[in-house]
Amino acid sequence: MVNIADSPGAQKLVDDPFGSRPYLVFWEVTRACALACKHCRAVAQPKRHPDELTSEEAERLVDQLAELSPPMLILTGGDPLMRLDVLQIAQRADERGMRVGLSPAATARLSNYDFDVIRQAGVSSMSLSLDGATRETHDAFRGVKGTFDRTIDAVHRAKAAGLSVQINTTLTAHNLDEFDAFRDLMFELEPSMWSVFILVPTGRAGVVDMPSADALESVFERMADLVGKAPFGIKTTEGHHFRRVLAQRGHGGQRGRQGMRTPLGIRDGRGVMFISHTGVVSPSGFLPADCGNVRDVHPAEVYREHPLFVSLRDSDALGGKCGRCEFRTICGGSRARAYGVTGDMFAAEPACSYQPKSTR
């Protein structure tokens, strides 16, 4: 973990639409997982960490998050189902007014779960990953045979149970040529949302695994062709410049969000907060900066007042071409990828080929 004391623009007061609360809170309830994914952010392990938040600490955290009142709480991992009290956590969060999402791994454990019980516990949505468009490529990516079939089965079971389904696809240099097949698969499965993750070099993933900026631009153009036509929503994770492509096409302009359900401008630390299995608070799961621990400080205080969070919410604190870009308030680039590639969280987005028109 990287400890942050000071960061550019940390004390600058800005008109901050995301200043009071995050829109999305990702809580890594455990790092335990039975899979061995090539790109795993968490570098997940087979067994639970001895210093995970206890059930009592988890209950306290849910109550604190309810005070912060984020519109969405996502329970992730590792595999959150490896934590035996995960549905109790979900139910407590639901009872305190939060919309709860669950992001499980497609293992035999998930196959044995009653999805109606998951929904009755207060989970409203489930995100499942397909990182290969075929059985062979996905199972190779995930490191365990049978994962593709279990994922497809889980999509159908989740929809039958009344859960909103999001399918996550991580694009890398190695699976970019499957994009058309991914697209066709989404039309078959018809999730509520297709979230295209753009790989960040962290955890088990390296810079060599990143797609090139030019290749991504081409993919984003093809994704934009689907907006308003596909029977599912389309968004990106750590691929914020897709919003710029949409704006350039006139899809709602810079203030619109056609094809997306989250407000424009969200990025690491700006509308997003991540809490690790041991309680460490970071701007996102892909940006491993230690901004405090929920065992010692209220998560609302970290989000609203920590200098790094304050700086990351300031689009004028961005460096390089991102700082000059006319789309910086709706995009701002992946701060996690900038850090993973350059060591500077405020550097230009390495995976964007756009050259700003502004000379600011």
- Strand arrangement across the biggest beta sheet: 8-7-6-5-4-3-2-9-10
What average pLDDT do the residues reach?
A: 90
How does the overall form come out from the CA principal axes?
A: globular
What composes the largest sheet? Answer: 9 strands, mixed
Q: What is the fold-level CATH name, i.e. the topology?
A: TIM Barrel
Total count of domains: 1
The secondary structure category is: alpha/beta
| Helix count from the secondary structure assignment | 13
How are helices and strands ordered from N to C?
EEHEHEHHEHHEHEHEHEEEHHHH
End-to-end C-alpha gap? 34 Å
Question: What does the model show?
Answer:
By secondary structure, the protein is of the alpha/beta class. The protein is 32% helix and 14% strand. The chain has a single domain, classed as Aldolase class I (TIM Barrel). It has 13 helices and eleven strands. A hairpin with a 5-residue loop joins strand 9 and strand 10. Helix 8 packs across helix 9.
List the topology elements:
Elements: E1 2-3, E2 24-28, H1 55-68, E3 72-76, H2 86-95, E4 99-102, H3 108-111, H4 115-120, E5 123-129, H5 135-142, H6 147-160, E6 164-171, H7 179-189, E7 193-198, H8 213-226, E8 233-237, H9 241-248, E9 272-275, E10 281-282, E11 289-290, H10 299-305, H11 307-312, H12 320-324, H13 335-342
Helix pairs in contact: 8-9
Task: Summarize this structure as a short list of keywords or feature phrases.
about 30% helix, alpha/beta, Radical_SAM_PqqE_MftC-like, TIM Barrel, 11 strands, metal-binding, Aldolase_TIM, catalytic activity
